[in-house]
């Protein structure tokens, strides 16, 4: 909100570490936390590679 209010471009990246549905044991956040974090990091790295260099 602060960035938008001040006209500063931004991107927010969120990652989900649980599943919709599934049993309680299979749906624990800890089960997928490392995978979700790795996927989010990979997306950010790919986005940064595609961004033009700022003058």
Structure description:
By secondary structure, the protein is mainly α. It has one domain (2-50). The protein has helices at residues 2-5, 33-50. The chain starts with a helix and ends in a 5-residue tail after the last helix.
What is this structure's SSE topology?
Elements: H1 2-5, H2 33-50
Radius of gyration: 16 Å
Instruction: Summarize the amount of helix as a percent range.
Output: 40-55%
Class per helix and strand makeup: mainly alpha
**Secondary structure: number of strands:** 0
Mean pLDDT: 84
Q: What is the succession of H and E elements? A: HH
Count helical runs. 2
Described by the principal axes of the CA atoms, the overall outline is elongated
Tell me what portion of residues adopts beta-strand conformation: under 5%
Q: How many domains comprise the coordinates? A: 1
State the end-to-end CA separation.
26 Å
The description of the largest β-sheet is: none
Q: What is this structure, in a nutshell?
A:
The chain is mainly α and about 55 residues long. The protein is built from two helices and no strands. The longest helix is centred in the C-terminal third of the chain and has 18 residues.
């Amino acid at each position: 909100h602060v960035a938008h209010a001040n006209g500063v471009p931004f991107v927010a990246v969120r990652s989900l570490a649980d599943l919709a549905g599934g049993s309680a044991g299979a749906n624990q956040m800890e089960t997928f936390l490392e995978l979700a974090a790795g996927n989010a990091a990979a997306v950010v790295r790919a986005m940064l590679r595609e961004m033009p260099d700022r003058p």
